[in-house]
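Re: that backbone. C-alpha cells:
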C-alpha cells in the first residue's frame, strides 16, 4: 500500500528526473531565438507603467483611447507555490504569473506596444517563459523569454490586432502542458482605439470587467484514493503527468480554486450596469452560461474586429482562447455563471456567482403562484393543477 509518505518519496524520484527534461527543452527553445531584423525606432513614443492587479479585477484603463499609441510597461514575477484548490484542502503545486491563477488581465489598445518584464526569482525550481497569442513571431515571445531561476527578461511586441487573447508559459515539450495546467496562463485584452462596437458598428462600453480564467487541474491520488501532496513543484511532475495524460481533470475551476467566485467572493453588480466578462481557457474547451441572464453581445472567439453575436444563451470558448461577453443586468438576484457542462460546473468546481442589486421587474418575470400543494380531491383521486 502506498501511504502519503511513500507517495512523497516517489515524487522526489520524479523531481530528480525532471531537470533533464527541462534542460533538453531549454536547448530547443534557445535555438529558435533570432532577435535581429528590421529595427523600429519607438524612442519617441510615450511610455506608461501599468501595475497589474489580481483577477477577477482588472487594472484601470480607458475604453476609448484619448492618447496616441504608447509603450505600455508591465512587470510580472513568476511564483511557484503550493495552493489550495478546493474546500477539502486539496493542494496543487502551482506555477503562477504574479502569484494568481490565472495571471492578471493586461489591457492595452491596438497599436500600443506591450513591454513586459518577466522575472523568475532564484527560489523557483523551473525555467519559464511566456507565449502571447496576441503577439506575432518568436513563438508568441516564447523563444525570446525563456528564463532560469534568478533571471529576468524584457519582451516587447506590438499589439497589432484587437481582441482578448490568452498568454501562457510554454517552456518546451511536456513542460508546456504541465506548466499550463499548474496555473501558468492569463489573458490580454487589446481594445480597438475607438473602443468596442456593437453588431451595427455603434459604440458600446461597459461599467465593469470581470476576468475569469478557467483551469483544469489533474491532482494524483494515492492507493487509498486520497489526493496526494508534494514537497515542491518538481516532485509533483511524475504523478501529475500520469493523470494529465488520461485527460480527465479532477478539478475544473474558475480563478484557481473551487469557490473562488461564490459566496463571500461573489462578483457584484447593479441592475442597469453593463459588465464585460472576459473568459479564458488555455488548455481545454468550455462553454460559459449565465443562468438567468444572457450574452447581449458575444465575441465568442474574443476578436473585436468580428461582428458580435447577439442574445446568446451559451457560448463556446475554444481551449487556447479567451472570449468576451457583454451583458446589462435587468433583474436583481444571484446569477450563477457556469461552465455549462454541468458536471464540471457543480461537481468539479466551474461556477461563479454574480450578486445583482436593484428592483425586481415583474414584467420580465413574476411568480404567479408560489409552489402550493394542489391537493387531493374528495374522491381520493389527484386533481389536475
Ligand atoms: Cu512555466
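Recovered sequence:
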Amino acid at each position: 500500500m502506498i501511504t502519503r509518505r511513500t507517495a512523497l518519496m516517489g515524487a522526489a524520484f520524479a523531481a530528480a528526473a525532471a531537470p533533464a527534461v527541462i534542460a533538453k527543452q531549454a536547448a530547443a527553445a534557445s535555438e529558435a531565438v533570432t532577435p535581429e531584423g528590421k529595427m523600429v525606432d519607438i524612442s519617441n513614443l510615450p511610455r506608461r507603467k501599468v501595475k497589474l492587479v489580481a483577477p477577477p479585477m482588472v487594472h484601470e484603463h480607458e475604453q476609448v483611447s484619448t492618447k496616441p499609441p504608447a509603450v505600455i510597461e508591465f512587470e510580472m514575477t513568476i511564483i511557484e507555490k503550493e495552493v489550495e484548490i478546493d474546500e477539502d484542502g486539496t493542494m496543487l503545486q502551482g506555477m503562477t504569473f504574479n502569484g494568481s491563477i490565472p495571471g492578471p488581465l493586461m489591457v492595452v489598445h491596438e497599436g500600443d506596444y506591450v513591454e513586459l518584464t518577466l522575472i523568475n526569482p532564484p527560489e523557483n525550481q523551473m525555467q519559464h517563459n511566456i507565449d502571447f497569442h496576441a503577439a506575432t513571431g518568436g513563438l508568441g515571445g516564447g523563444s525570446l523569454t525563456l528564463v532560469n531561476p534568478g533571471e529576468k527578461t524584457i519582451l516587447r511586441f506590438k499589439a497589432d490586432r484587437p481582441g482578448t487573447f490568452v498568454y501562457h508559459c510554454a517552456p518546451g515539450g511536456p513542460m508546456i502542458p504541465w506548466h499550463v495546467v499548474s496555473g501558468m496562463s492569463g489573458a490580454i485584452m487589446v481594445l480597438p482605439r475607438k473602443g468596442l462596437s456593437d453588431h451595427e458598428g455603434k459604440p458600446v462600453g461597459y461599467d465593469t470587467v470581470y476576468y475569469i480564467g478557467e483551469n483544469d487541474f489533474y491532482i494524483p491520488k494515492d492507493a487509498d484514493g486520497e489526493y496526494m501532496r508534494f514537497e515542491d513543484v518538481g516532485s509533483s511532475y511524475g504523478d501529475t503527468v500520469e493523470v494529465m495524460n488520461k485527460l480527465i481533470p479532477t478539478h475544473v475551476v474558475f480563478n484557481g480554486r473551487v469557490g473562488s467566485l461564490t459566496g463571500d467572493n461573489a462578483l457584484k453588480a447593479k441592475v442597469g450596469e453593463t459588465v464585460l466578462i472576459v473568459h479564458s481557457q488555455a488548455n481545454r474547451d468550455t462553454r460559459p452560461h449565465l443562468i438567468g441572464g444572457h450574452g447581449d453581445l458575444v465575441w465568442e472567439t474574443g476578436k473585436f474586429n468580428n461582428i458580435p453575436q447577439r442574445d446568446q444563451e451559451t457560448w463556446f470558448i475554444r481551449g487556447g482562447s479567451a472570449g468576451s461577453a457583454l451583458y446589462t443586468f435587468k433583474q436583481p438576484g444571484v446569477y450563477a455563471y457556469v461552465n455549462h457542462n454541468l458536471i464540471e460546473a457543480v461537481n468539479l468546481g466551474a461556477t461563479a456567482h454574480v450578486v445583482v442589486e436593484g428592483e425586481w421587474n415583474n414584467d420580465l418575470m413574476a411568480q404567479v403562484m408560489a409552489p402550493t400543494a394542489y391537493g387531493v380531491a374528495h374522491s381520493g383521486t389527484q386533481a389536475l393543477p
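Residues 123 and 149 are 7 Å apart (CA to CA). The first helix runs from residue 4 to 31.
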